[in-house]
Amino acid sequence: xxxxxxFIPQSDPPLPPWETLPTMYDLPSDNLEEPGLPxxxxxxxxxxxxxxxxxxxxxxxxxxxxxDLNLYYTIQHPLLYKRPDWFGVVGVxxxxxxxxxxxxxxxxxxxxxxxxxxxxxxxxxxxxDLGIRKSSEDKPPNKWEVYERILRIPYYIVxxxxxNELQAFQLVGGHYEPINLTDGRILMPELGLSLGVWQGSFxxxxxxxxxxxxxxGEIIPAPTESAVAASERAMIAEQEARDAKQEARDAKQxxxxxxxxxxxxxxxxxxxxxxxxxxx
Length: 280
Known about the structure:
26% helix, 2 domains, three-stranded mixed beta sheet, 12 strands, alpha+beta, tt1808, chain A, six-stranded mixed beta sheet
């Protein structure tokens, strides 16, 4: 005779893997020595800067910008590099020696150093990006030291998507000084541009973005935004043309109705023995 216990202890059901395995915040990078990269924001934000970097004081053929590209900064140690999230250069052709896309930006083989660099703060990179942690003598200089002392980049911008804090520094007398914002923007008169934080939708994602403006504060549209704006203007112009035609038809109809009424009135007067042409 078989025996079945009336009570069998049951263990707790296993937790789903998304509650026990590391999250995207625990695994921010495929390079443990370079935390914080890559992620979606580090792709989209530099893309918006790239698409809207259009200095008004320079020939577009002599404007170059790049994102996540190795920036080699000293011929004394040619293998050392930094990788800015985004940088812009003026006075440099888009193609290296007018021939090929760049594999990297080698400063001693280019006619100009970057004019502006943007770093996007990530967990683990803030101390280096802001120069809080100084490099030791046996290690390469940090980003702040390279941009300020070696390359002497005129404008250095740091933006955090976590706090939406924008920090800007300008090279003054060989060292960086904080920049006071004007109407929430960083003015760069040498470029005819300004840089500020903008609330809006880019690639269907609505949030605060860092983007380029004119010196007067007008948004510089990305190509897709320009196309949408042009389409909207065409639709408005088409609607205005239809409205104008309808107004012309309405005016013509009213004139014809007034003419018929005048004719009917004149005929009625004639039936009454009154010559309408003699009425003044």
